[in-house]
Amino acid sequence: MYHKPVMLHESVEGLQVKPDGLYADVTFGGGGHARAIMEKLGNGRLFGFDQDKDAQANAIADDRFTFIPHNFQYLSNFVRMYGVEQLDGIFADLGVSSHQFDVAEKGFSTRFEGALDMRMDQNSAKSAADIVNTYDQEQLTTLFRKYGELPNAWNMAGHIVAYRQNQAIKSTTDLKTAIEKSLPKHKEFKVLAQVFQALRIEVNEELKVLEIFLEQCAPLLKPGGRLVVISYHSLEDRLVKNFMRSGRADGVIEKDFFGRPQTPYELISRKPIIPTTPEIEENNRSRSAKLRIAQKK
To answer: pTM for the full model?
Structure first.
């Protein structure tokens, strides 16, 4: 299976799909969520975005579906290119797909020997190997602290810089070897996952791209339209929460002359929805997922 969709029922229900509505699944992947949306459509239309070339093989053969092989930061441009001014719903699952984790050559997983790549878009110039071999200790420290939330970031960055003086860090195994002395006992796998997360975010500029995407959503949605987002770590969840709360990345709610809050959304889920225990048992990769839903005013 390319990817088992997380909180499938909750996500699609959250969209409140109208049979004649216009929707975008901006993280198409294996198409699990998209197919569930399509089942509820009549003569409506669904746009599926994914920059991973492997996802295109999963495109749905249906005249109501349009696959767009690009990053979701270009959502507004492409939707309008197809003659659509506003949408009834936008869905995003921000997690890395099971397929991407399970293909060793992509370098996303700590479990496999593979090239230290981590590019979602294979046309991108910068890989994880480029970062660990060219960033200085201060840059690597900032990266690990900001995106990996690692307290020993300086020490870890130092080990990387020392290791590469003798040989380039080209593979996932090279990286693990370079930092093994800075991995705390009994927490090795957790910290490794944080290191890989930090590099993946940097390679793909994930938070920058997510902010660009979220800025487009409110203007693109019709009144009553739904924004449904699944996030997997605190950095991206904070951005999603802030935009749904205030329409801004910093979460600050602007007020009009009379002191009335000026916000684009009504929160449908004030607290994030999390997977059920049976879902986590069936799909362990769903354990950190948080689902948030907002409706355009």
So the answer is: 0.91
